[in-house]
Amino acid sequence: MNVRDLRKRVPYQIQRDVLDELSVDQVAEKSDFKISTKEKLRDAVRCTGPRFKSCFLSFVPLLTWLPRYPFRENAIGDLISGISVGIMHLPQGMAYALLAAVPPVFGLYSSFYPILIYFIFGTSKHISVGTYAVMSVMIGSVTERLAPDSDFMIPGNDTNSTTLDIIGRDAERVKIAATVTFLSGIFQLLLGLVRFGFVVTYLSEPLVRAYTTAAAIHVIVSQLKYSFGISPQRYSGPLSLIYTVIEICALLGKTNIGTLVVSIVTILGLVAAKELSALAARKIPVPIPVELITIIVATVVSWQMDLKTEYGVEVVGQIPSGLQAPVAPAVSLLGSMVGDAFALAVVGYGIAISLGRIFALKYAYKVDSNQELIALGLSNAIGGLFNCFAISCSMSRSMVQVSTGGKSQVAGAISAVVILVILLKIGELFEELPKAVLAAIIYVNLHGMMKQFGDICSLWRTNKVDMVVWVMTMILTVLLNPDLGLAASIAFSILTVVFRTQLPKYSILGQVPGTDIYRPVEEYHQVKEIPGIMIFRSSATLYFANAEMYIDALYEKTGVDVAKLLSHKKKLEAKRLRKEKKAAKKAKKEAKKRAKEAADKAVGPDPDSTLPQAIILDLSPVNFLDTVGVKTLRNIYKDYGEAGVQVYLCGCQRGVVESMEKGDFFNEKVTKSILFSSVHDAVLYSQQGNSKEESYFKM
């Protein structure tokens, strides 16, 4: 005999009074103690020594965990992990800089400064912050919109010829990228300081995965010009992706064959190398730096074969050594990029906190969502001063950091040191690297995002509403670009929640024989309705958007249209009064009685005889009531009461009761005696004819 069978056979008995809300308050001795808003505010701003220390340490987590850093256990793993991730930062930083439409060296800056800031202020031990494809393409849409190539065309030697001022264009785009990054960091910092970390809850997992997939499509399209060696016109705004694809197709005849060959060879080589690396991962503890080997080989080949001169292959170009001094953001540009900066702030935080929570759950520690906002905000704001572009965390780098033994943020700091060495000594060696190779690295690294198209099939089987959110997010982001697409996707996702509350499931409940359990009668064969009592439940909360539908469903399910019933009753009452008035004119008191009896006889049988004795509204799914909801319940109670049907409410949460109190639902005639904690209490009270005698139920 298993535990489940034993549990089924365990009987229990309950013997108690039927309790309404007032009785429960008395028995449980309800507390009326409430903290005033003034006291809450005073407590929030009160500063004591221990409290100041706690706040300061939570603001700078490094001071908490670094003194207790287990050097012997973690040092070797963090060192190997930091070097491995630092090597990955080099090709990814340079490649993602192309997405941001800035020179590759600024991708290396973005892989250095923000990492050091996050090392000090971040709370996740395992995520690898730095350049990220989705963030880079969002930055690129801003830089190319505010600094298009057409603004930097200078007259050539010939009358009708023009030349692109690449140096001036790149300088302006770097300034724009740094400014929007700074502003997005300020947004994140402010949201963190006001404890607004919960904003990420509006980014559901289907929405985030669909958004990153759509952004990956934008990334791929934006890199096609480097793969084919063409220069398509830059489009902005809605449908710009479609226009860009059409433009690229029209320019395919001008493809640079040398560039295309470099792209194809690099892609095939990367795919083959990654497959071999995956097979060798079981035997080699440290992953093979495939991207690093690729850019080294490509740079050597480009230098030896002089691809730039002989075949017209576009290369990275000058990479200055050393670090740059901080530069103030361009204040004049802030007004034109507020929406873009906020989108960057939300998307970057959403991706980082989602991945951070996954690792925190796996390795049993806590990630502070508000502190993560502050850490990312400082990383972007300070990084923007050093000409970095917006950062988030990368799944691929984070997985490498974990798989190679990384156990703390020290691994991230070591990876920043690796980038520093590259910036100071090695960076200039990659000046002959073809941009087509960086584009190929991006394509291959995005294959994981492309696999997310499989979400459609899995969501179709599990939750079709989430599937619709996924598909719509994908379509909106592709058509409207990442910034507008994000806003439209969030709005659509919220609308699906609203629609679900407007289309709840309405049920009549019946009793499971021999128990105090009530279930929808249409879903169970053995569940029976209580004679003379209708128990009605909605699966959603009750508020202005579905209040009218709630009443209509109540009338339909109970089979009682109170409006028509009351109208009929009023007509009968008016008819009776007319007869009484007519009888009063013809006779005195006795004659009036006879006229009344005759009028009552003419009225016919009482229509209320077919009505249920009571209607019980199960409000357990209702988590809040607005003024319309309170008014709806008041009208239901009043209308059914006039029709001779008593209405009881059960399962009300404390907030719902408080809303009813504030909405003047209760008065001298309507008290909390109509409220019950459970459906069974309300049923017993109705059956006993409003007599609260002791009830005994045995199950």
| Mass-distribution shape | elongated
Order of strands across the main sheet: 7-6-8-9-10-11
In total, the number of strands is: 12
State the distance separating the first and last CA atoms.
Answer: 21 Å
Major sheet characteristics: 6 strands, mixed
Structural class: alpha/beta
Helix percentage: 55-70%
Radius of gyration based on Cα positions = 35 Å
Query: What's the pLDDT, averaged over the residues?
Result: 84
Report on this structure.
By secondary structure, this protein is an alpha/beta fold. Helix content is 60%, strand content 7%. It has 29 helices and twelve strands. It has a six-stranded mixed beta sheet with strand order 7-6-8-9-10-11. The longest helix is centred in the last third of the chain and has 39 residues, at 464-502. It is elongated and about 125 Å long. The protein starts with a helix and ends with a strand. The model is unreliable at 599-607 and 690-699 (pLDDT under 50).
Write the layout of secondary structure elements.
Elements: H1 3-9, E1 13-17, H2 21-28, H3 37-45, H4 49-59, H5 62-65, H6 71-99, H7 105-110, H8 113-121, E2 129-130, H9 133-146, E3 153-155, E4 162-164, H10 166-193, H11 205-228, H12 240-251, H13 257-280, H14 290-305, H15 307-310, H16 338-362, H17 369-385, E5 392-393, H18 395-403, H19 410-426, H20 435-445, H21 447-450, H22 455-462, H23 464-502, E6 506-511, E7 518-520, E8 533-538, H24 547-558, H25 562-586, H26 589-603, E9 614-618, H27 627-642, E10 646-650, H28 654-662, E11 675-676, H29 679-687, E12 694-698
Parallel strand pairs: 8-9, 9-10, 10-11
Antiparallel strand pairs: 1-12, 2-5, 3-4, 6-7, 6-8
